[in-house]
Each structure stands twice: as structure tokens, then as C-alpha cells.
Amino acid sequence: MATTNNNVVVVMIPLPAQGHLQPLLELARRILSSSNFTIPVHYVGSATHLRQAQSRAHGWDPLTTPNLHFSEFQMPTLDNIPPDTNDFYPSNLIPSFYAAMEFRQPVADLVKNLSATDKVKRVVVIHDILMSWVVQDVVAIPNTEMYFFHAVSALDVCSRILEAKLNVDPVTPPADVAEILQELASMEPGSDSPPPLMVKYVEKQMSCAVNYSGLNIFSTCKPIDGIYLDLMQQAFKSYDEHWKTWGLGLFMNPLEMEKNIRKDTTSTLPRHHLLQWLDKQEPNSVMLVSFGSAASFTDEQIRELALGLEQSQQKFIWILKEADRANVFADENINRTTFALPEGYEERVEGRGMVERGWAPQLEVLGHASTGGYLCHCGWNSVMESISMGVPIAAWPLHTDHPRTALLLTKGLKIGIYVRDCARRNELVKAETIHNAVKTLMDSPEGENLRQKAAELKDAVKASFMDGGATKKDIESFMSYITR
């Protein structure tokens, strides 16, 4: 039985966006369950974003988890701006990032109080790298240790570091990796850039980040990103003597995930209608279509996507919902179904396609035996879920880390194909293009080969969490380091 370790306390500071909130909350759970000691974890944020993270936790209840504490800080009231369908980037969320900079003093006060607590030897501060400005005062507080959290792939971070030409040790990557890095270096300027207001925000964070130690936690693991984790470690050997990298994701243990999504014949709760429909389909016959919590399309693009799916004659589940706003719980954000599909569309695809206009159990859908492909925006959390369930991806990257993730999927891991690349992100993707990509992934020898590779990667990820596996070793190494 675990005993309480009053010597170490963990504080987590996420960026207030779904793709950053959730993995850091799952890391909190990992820390709470991965030590012989019970280490208190303090997860901070505004009331709205704490509730958002709590409500979207999968397979566990953060509010009833012992030693997980939520520290609520005040954030300026934000207008609940709708997403701009002409802007792939979720610009409507940027004001909440700037508002979260108000956490600077409350975070410093919290860490200072914990540091001064009797018997506390170390306060481990794990902050999203995009919240580095908020923790700038924490560095000087006694007994604190700073850790960067990266909610993107190691390829993304590694390639940006090498492109920045920092004074790091020269590295010679394998030929196939060198080819990927060269392709990234030659990427069309601006093809993955956020809007100017976000660029300024990132620059502000990075100006502070250079002052912290190089202890890095990644939402990835060795079977997926190992070569890039190793390249960073090699490159920084002399640049930063404190540099360490840990690949601790998937933060939801894939063994547990698989167990949780199995059909529970003893449950009295009704099974979600999407899962009931999947139960009636052939193995690997259905494509999931979902663009995450932050992507919006024009009505014209929605119509082309609808027609492309219809023309492909493949079975599909399409999660069609508006992207998140700053407050996902605001009344006007509930049950909006404003997307215009072609007249009679749902009747025409009945029995072959399901259009879901709200919340859906995405992980369970991906884990169902009937799901054989995933058309998505290449957001890192969605990609990790798909990999954990052995489902290949039709990549439709939109912005920032998406193009690099798409390249990792298609050229590195070889478990994906492009719908279209990010350099053409401002072009309308026509129904024929979508139709061809869907047919290739779902009904071709190439698609079958991708499914086989995705299944092999899933098995490798699962094995890495077992005793002696690379991820298990990284978890043990990290826990040993913070409790040393």
C-alpha cells in the first residue's frame, strides 16, 4: 500500500485549451498511480477550464481521486467568441491564453506556500511550455524544480530546435529521419504558422522559457517518437547539462484503455447508439471522421466533405460539431446544429453513414473492431488515441503542429495517407479528393497494409508499458528523479 510522501508536491499549469488541458490532467493521474508514495498533485486553472478538463476525463473521476487538488484562479471574463469558419486556427481561443497570464501571481503564491510547508523538500512545477511566462517568478522560490510539458510530438519539438540552429551538439540522424527533417526544413513558409497575435504570445513564452532548466516531459513514447527523443538528448548533451527527456505518454495506459472500452455485459446503462450501430458492421469497415475540439470549416467545405464521403460508398461515422469556445458550458454553446448538409443527405446515406452532431464516445468508436480508419486533423491527442487503438489515419492537417504530425504518420510511422497537405490549407478540398482518400484507406491493398502497420504499432506501444518496456522505464525514471 502506498504511503504519503510529504517531501514532494507537484503543481501543474496547463494552457487553457482542450489539447493541453487533458493530457496534463492524465499525467496527474499517472503520477498519482505510479509511485510507492502518494504524491499530492495541484492542478491549476480557471473555474471554467478546470470543469472542462474534469468533465472530459475518460474512465475515471478526477473529483473523487485522492490527493488530486484543483486550485481555482480568477480569469478575466471573456466574450464567448464563436470560431471563425474562414480561419482554420482557433483564433477565438487566443484571448483565453492571454487572460491566463493573470495566473502569474497566484501561481507564485501557491508554490511559495507549498515550498514553505513543513517537511516539503521539493515542489515539482510542471508547466505547459506555452505557460512559461506565468511561472517566471517561481524559478527563484526555494525548493522548486521546473519541468516543461510538451503536448505535441517529439518530432515537432526536435525539428524546431534543430531549425533554430541553437548551439547544440551536431547530430547525424538515420537516413530516413534525415529525409523527414529535410522535408520539414523546406516546408512552405507560413504553412503551419499561427496568426500574428498567437505568434506574439508564443514569443513572450519562449523569452521566459530560456531561463529554466531543460527537464522535458513529452506526451509521447519511444515506439512512436523514440528517435526524436534520442536526437534531442544527444544534441543537448553539452548545451544544457540538466537536459533530460521523458516520453511518458500515452498518459492513458493503453492496456487500461482497451479494458475500459470493451463491451460491459453487466452494465445497466444503455450502450451509446453509435456503438450499437458499430456492433452490426463488418470488422474494419467503418471510417471515423472527426476534426477535434478546435477546428471549424466553412459550409462549402462541409458540403464537399459530405459529398466525398457519400461518393466513396464507404461506411462512416462523422462527428459534426462546432469547435470549442472559451467557455464550453455557456448556454448558447449547447446543441448548436448550424452546419448545412446537402438536402436529403442523411436519408441518402442511412444505413451506411452516421452523422453525430454532438458529443460522441470517440475512444470507444476508435477501439471498436468495426472501425478501420480515421479521417482527422492530426491533432496530437487524437493521433495518440488512434495509434493506441491500431487505427490508420487519413491526414487533413490544418495548422501549427499538424503538418509535422502528418509527416510523422505518413513518412515516419507509415500508418497514414494524406487527404491534402497543409501547404494547400486555404484551398477548398473537393469531394473527389476526399472520395479518393477514403477509398484508398478503407478499400485498397494500400489501406490494408496501413492497417497492418497500425496494428503492429499498437502492439509495440502496449508492450512498452509492460515490465521492462521503454515507456515503463521512462515512467520509473521520472518518478525516481522527482522523488530522489
From TrEMBL:
UniProt xrefs under CDD domains: GT1_Gtf-like
Per the UniProt entry, the Enzyme Commission number(s) are: 2.4.1.-
Family note: Belongs to the UDP-glycosyltransferase family.
State the top-level EC class.
Answer: transferase
Q: Which Gene Ontology biological process is one annotated for this entry?
A: glycoside biosynthetic process
Instruction: List keywords of the entry alphabetically.
Output: Glycosyltransferase, Transferase
The record ties this protein, via Pfam families, to: Glyco_transf_N (PF26168), UDPGT (PF00201)
Q: What is this protein called?
A: Glycosyltransferase
GO molecular function annotation: UDP-glucosyltransferase activity
Q: The Glycosyltransferase N-terminal domain covers which part of the protein?
A: 7-249
Matching entries from InterPro entries are given as: Glyco_transf_N, UDP_glucos_trans, UDP_glycos_trans_CS
Can you tell me where the transmembrane regions are? none
